[in-house]
Amino acid sequence: MHPPRDPAPSSATPEPSCALVCTRCGAVVAIDPDLRALAASAASRNGFEVRAPRLRLFGCCAACRAGAAGPLPRGWGRA
After folding, report:
1. What is the 3-state secondary structure of the chain?
2. Which of 7, 36, 38, 37 lies closest to 20 in space, CA to CA?
3. Closest among 56, 47, 48, 61 to 18, alpha carbons compared
4. Long-range contact list for 26-34, CB < 8 A, 24+ apart?
5. CB within 8 A of 34, min separation 6: which ones?
6. What is the number of other CB atoms lying within 10 angstroms of the CB of residue 11?
7. pLDDT the model gives residue 9
């Protein structure tokens, strides 16, 4: 199973640099980790120049895990 693509950016709502994305309902929650420091450290260790630091963590939101969107896919279990 492939994670969904990031939602298309809109000029009205800037895309968060870091987000949690629900693979069931598509909910996107912006999070605020220190991505610049993480990107700089990883880039330095691996000889990269980061031009667009973005991080997406894919999973299942609380509403979907609670069953609001129907049964979860096989193997997802409940937390």
Report:
1. CCCCCCCCCCCCCCCCCEEEEECCCCCEEECCCCHHHHHHHHHHHHCCCCCCCCEEEEECCHHHHCCCCCCCCCCCCCC
2. 7
3. 56
4. 27/61, 27/63, 29/61, 31/57
5. none
6. 5
7. 47
Torsion of CA 39, 44, 47, 50, to 10 degrees: 30
Q: What's the pLDDT tens digit per position in 28-57?
A: 999 887 777 888 899 999 999 988 888 899
End-to-end CA distance of the chain: 20
Q: Does the pLDDT value for residue 72 go beyond 80?
A: no
Structure tokens at 42: 């990883």
Which tokens in the block code for residue 8? Answer: 């298309």
